[in-house]
């Protein structure tokens, strides 16, 4: 994501933000080493039992997940008695495995996570091989903000729509990433087999894919992320003198086929032309990220987490630009879908009138 320098002083609730991201109040690596000191605040609200420990699994350093989860952990630490921390992870699938395998109700340890809806759906229903025998025991707390499926190519490849990827050299994202999950689901719906229909199938991360496209090693790549994504901004600038980049359209029939096969996972989205300096707005799939927790988290704890976040949305939204879409109106976007909401979170939404 776009590099930023931010000073977040929760005591004065003063946040100076440049770009999308800020340094989170509390963040640890996947192995648990502290990276950023916890800020302090006064005037705590009604506190949850101190015996609870909540660990928020996020994503890679520099990504929105990392900062979003870190700020939420800081809010819980500062405004409640919840022992909250955030950890850096490989994102969605890793996070869902942590919720399943590391939550320990007997010790009051509960994992929460930022995840993509497609990853959550496959893990919850057991359609992902890692969850076939032990499904992800998750419940939704709220919908966060949308990711957009980018399909990036150069102007000289002749690729105009997703169907034109056949016979090309394509990267579908890093192995096990949310990007790869979304790319493969879309290709599956369209009857495109990357192993057979691509002349070369790569599985590269965002930065590696961008460099490969710039160097001519691939013709296109998939990326799922917020707007804008810094590596694509940099790629567009680097290729400007060579005709620039093209974002590949996902047409209506492809979007309709996807939403019918996987109801509730995605909606039609548009990447405006001014985001990356493309010639036109581009239609694609949009996926709303979820904040989830273990389904057996005590109702009172889930209620307290939800209440704390939504009563201090100004901090989250000033700290992380993408969080402007974290609102009470959007929080229940997945209500009534395959994955249930946690009863504790629903209690808060009913209390404030967001859910009748």
Automatic annotation (TrEMBL):
- Cite the InterPro entries for this sequence: TRAP_TAXI (IPR011852)
Note down the stretches annotated as region Disordered: 25-45
Q: Which Pfam families match?
A: NMT1_3
Instruction: Give the NCBIfam families listed for this entry.
Output: TRAP_TAXI
The UniProt entry, under PANTHER family, shows:
SLL1037 PROTEIN (PTHR42941:SF1)
Its protein name is TRAP transporter solute receptor, TAXI family
Q: Which organism is it from?
A: Pyrobaculum ferrireducens
